[in-house]
Design brief:
Elements: H1 2-9, H2 12-15, H3 17-30, H4 32-51, H5 53-68, E1 85-89, H6 99-102, H7 107-114, E2 117-121, H8 122-139
The structure holds zinc ion (2 copies).
């Protein structure tokens, strides 16, 4: 009895998830061109956004910050992709620098923060933190 009232409350889609999935699949198959077109439009819009001056400025700022810190990973010299370079705080008790949070500050202020950090690529950064953790263990 109870189940019946429950079933009544559910709409068709909820009662037939398989059929919904099936019809979605069919819709996608029938509208492949439309979807492609939509994706293209989305990509184009994103590309325009990527070219926007604020993004450009952000990248320049990042390049500037990386240059201040030596321009490459201080362990292995990696410098191919800015996004794979992190600012690692020299003092392990301090949090690593999130340069995204820095912009909006003056460059002098940012430079002050960067001076307390070394530049590490993602790989070396992970290794470094692993090393720090191991060292911390030994001291306990
Ligand atoms: Zn490295
Ligand atoms: Zn770090």
């Amino acid at each position: 009895m109870k189940t019946q009232t429950m079933t009544k409350k559910l709409n068709w889609a909820q009662r037939n998830p398989e059929k919904v999935k099936e019809s979605q699949k069919r819709w996608r198959a029938n509208n492949a061109d439309k979807i492609k077109e939509n994706n293209k439009a989305y990509y184009k819009k994103n590309k325009e956004l990527l070219n926007a001056s604020s993004v450009q400025r952000h990248r320049e700022n990042r390049q500037w910050a990386v240059d201040q810190a030596g321009g490459c990973c201080s362990h292995c010299g990696y410098n191919k992709y800015l996004g794979a370079l992190d600012f690692h705080h020299i003092n392990p008790k301090e949090k690593d620098l999130n340069y995204n949070a820095l912009f909006g500050r003056t460059r002098e202020n940012i430079k002050e923060e960067i001076d307390k950090c070394i530049l590490l690529c993602s790989n070396c950064h992970r290794e470094e933190h692993h090393r720090l953790r191991e060292r911390a263990k030994k001291f306990i």
